[in-house]
Amino acid sequence: MSARASFASAAALLMARDLRLALRRAGDSLLPLGFFLVITTLFPLALDPELSQLRDIAPAALWVGALLSSLLALDLLFRDDGQDGALEQLALCGQPFAGLLLAKTVVHWLLTGLPLVLVAPLAAIALGAPYGAMPGILAAVLLGTVCLSLIGAVGAGLTLSLRRNGSLLALLVLPLAVPVLIFGARATALAIAGESLAAPLYLLAATAVLAATLAPWALAAAVRIGLE
Amino acid sequence: MAWVWFHKFGSPPHFYRLATRLTPWAAWPALLLGLAGLIGGLVLAPADYQQGDGFRIIYVHAPAAWLSLMVYVVMACTAAVGLIWRMAVAHAVAASCAPIGASFTALALATGMLWGRPMWGTYWEWDPRLTSELLLLFLYLGYMGLRNAIDDVPRADRASAVLAIVGVVNVPIIHYSVIWWNSLHQAPSVMKFGQPTMPASMLIPLLLMLAAFTLLFAALLLIRARGEVLQRERNARWMLEALERLSTHDGPPTRDGPSAKGVLVGR
Q1: I want to staple A124 with a disulfide (CB 3.0 to 4.6 A). Which of A129, A164, A183, B9 is the partner?
Q2: How far is the C-alpha of B258 from the C-alpha of B265, rounded, in Å?
Q3: Looking at the predicted structure, is the pLDDT value of residue A58 above 80?
Q4: Of A222, A147, A185, nearest to B170 (Cα)?
Q5: How far is B69 from chain A (nearest CA, A)?
Q6: Domain boundaries defined on chain B
């Protein structure tokens, strides 16, 4: 019997594995990003292409797009590992399950949240936001996507055992994501207006910390139930 | 053995008998207090100097809104008990809470909209409390949708329990984020109730209605939970034996145990 690996090395191995698997099929991870770009393109098409008007709806377009594309991305989180038994192995391997699932969620955020963080400011500028708003929007989307990945992961865990779970997942996750939408859209609006966006950013950061603290436990419980 | 009373709740026949016995103790006071509150609120209380008789809908709206939140907390607590002590009866109670809570939430929304028509001039105003009631309704629907989607009852119990606990952590965050959102977008709404400045002739009926609605919830919950236990225990021995004895004879309690009627009706 070899000595049991420390949690840090186990989590690092898991993250490296997940990253490698995802990069082999990079197209899958980029689909939600394409979805986000399409949605933010639809808003100007549905309205007048006048920049002053677009600027008013830019926060709404960005955050509704981010919410929906993060929902779409949740399908990637546990689907393959749930089907091929990898999740069961993780649950049985003796490492803290909540920690391992948190590591998986971090990788999921790196693959689907981080591209959104990089692209969202550009989409905002296309919608008429000034260049000065970019850092603020970047910070808000960074914190917001962290929250969305964590909240969404719990929903994905709860619906793990269901075959067709798309609309149910939306009904479970979107009401819980409302605070993120409110804080994020407010921060974006303040950034576009050139005002201080400290207050909504603090609230977003607090939500992210709370989600990172509590979500892994709920996630572990949910996935364990789904695996039974 | 101070915890025996607690673990006895976990026994379906015990819970069923207890629920049957307690139901009238909740239902009758609910009816009486409700009648008193309605008479006090709709007849005896003076009309509001600003809103006229329109304010009287508060006697339904406020208790429904209060219960919509309380039922969610009760649901989350019983679900947590079921999850922690693996108590199927607690899960049955939590499952029974959801439709009742969703109904109270829908009632609070409907009465809030009816109240909004004369006060705001529109049925729907993005008022923070109405908006968070709507989100609460979505949370209830999600809970019921999840239960509905999972066929295996124990698994549905445990998955929905996790969701209820996640939801109860989120309800205050959602509520205050909506208030925060609203305070930035529009002036505070004209309605500020609940302050102790309300005269006693208006306040006492409201308190009576609050008590009546709470007891009504207790009665409905007991009835629904009994139905849920009956459905889940339909193949259990105590149920089959009681039904068998009910079909042959219904004598006084025998050596084998209480009479069939005693099991099912609770005497």
Answers
A1: A129
A2: 11
A3: yes
A4: A147
A5: 15
A6: 12-45+55-190+197-233, 241-267
